[in-house]
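Lab notebook, design round three. We kept the backbone fixed and only want residue identities now. Task for the bench partner: fill in a sequence for the structure below.
Input structure tokens:
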């Protein structure tokens, strides 16, 4: 039986780059977001995780679904899949490392090899669409 990790992520693009984070003790970058808690909607998960990780507030009503992606979960046993529902949304505040996040960076497509497998698929899609350079 395949195990799926259910996550929601925030796609924040600026000048052809994407906002990414690195957790303490990790080398790989991830698009910000996280796992859904019991009973949470996608948007509730998005707002909670982004507030926890980056200390910014997602503005209700501005979120737009970009796509849902899945791949082998980075750092997990073979067959464990991560499924990530991705949204863009406006926000209040300035993204800064919070909670387990050690570093906040803006990555370009040339940084594709520095992100998790599911993020690589997202990088490919955004690059093909001309949004990530």
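Proposed sequence:
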């Amino acid at each position: 039986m395949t195990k799926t990790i259910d996550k929601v992520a925030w796609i924040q693009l600026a000048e052809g780059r994407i906002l990414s984070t690195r957790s303490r003790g990790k080398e790989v970058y991830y698009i910000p977001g996280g796992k859904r808690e019991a009973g949470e909607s996608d948007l509730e998960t998005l707002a909670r995780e982004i507030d926890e990780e980056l200390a910014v507030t997602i503005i209700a009503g501005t979120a737009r679904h970009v796509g849902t992606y899945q791949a082998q979960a980075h750092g997990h046993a073979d067959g464990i899949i991560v499924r990530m529902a991705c949204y863009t949304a406006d926000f209040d505040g300035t993204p800064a490392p919070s909670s387990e996040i050690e570093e906040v960076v803006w990555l370009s497509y040339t940084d594709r090899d520095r992100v998790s497998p599911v993020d690589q698929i997202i990088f490919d899609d955004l690059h093909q669409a001309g949004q990530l350079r």
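Keep this in mind before ordering anything: The radius of gyration is 14 Å.
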